[in-house]
Amino acid sequence: MEALVAxxxxxxxxxxxxxxxxxxxxxxxxxKGLEKRLGSQLIKRTTRQLMVTDSGELYYRHxxxxxxxxxxxxxAVSTLEGRLQGRLRITASTAxxxxxxxxxxxxxxxxxxxxxxxxxxxxxxxxxVADGIDLxxxxxxxxxxxxxxxxxAPRRLYICASPGYLSKAGVPDSLDDLKQHSCLLGTxxxxxxxxxxxxxxxxxxMNSGELLLHAALDGLGLVQLPDYxxxxxxxxxxxxxxxxxxxxxxxxxxxxxxxxxEQTPRVARFVEYLSAYLKDKLPKSRR
Length: 287
Prior knowledge:
The chain has nine helices and 14 strands. The chain is α/β, with parallel strands linked by helices.
């Protein structure tokens, strides 16, 4: 049963084997045995892909519900006794994960010694189903999906630069002024404005907010970064906000998980814990 569920969710025998920590040959034997016992083909195998048959989809839905129910029953008993157990797979972006999620995970584990956590830091948005992720910490505006999203904290973007850069290049007052400035861009390839994206001819593009911060501090140009990167530098005077009237609407830090995990205690408890942790640790935005 677990083999079929893993194959459907991972969309390959090798992915299912990795998820369950077994060999591909074991997964294949389990599938063949299950199909023989049921007298029905559940998975169509070709050289390029696997296709779930109608029987396979029906079996998967019932098997997934049974496994979820068993997991929830075990979690409920553990929670009743004040314990959390099992494994929780969490993903977050690299810089935010290192600054905030990883420290929260470490503190959380000290509270629940029977719990195991896999923390995967990546700037790519991993697929919750295909990559076996229980909880994704996402930043900014979310795309529509069938997943459940919990708002953990507000998030605000600022355009800023070092005082040294502004003394040489001047302070921009309008969108047109940006054409005369060196602008630094991240993975989006544009800045976010109050009325939509701001497209720029960037002097430097990098896929790391941490590196963009250091580039701005070194006087390489204007940058747009979220509050948790820049607020301490505003207070210290090492960065100066410009174009405050062009700030986009506030977004948020989100915890995202599959709907079937909504009642899973270890997911719910960590979301609650991380929300309180971020409220205490994130710098307060300016108005």
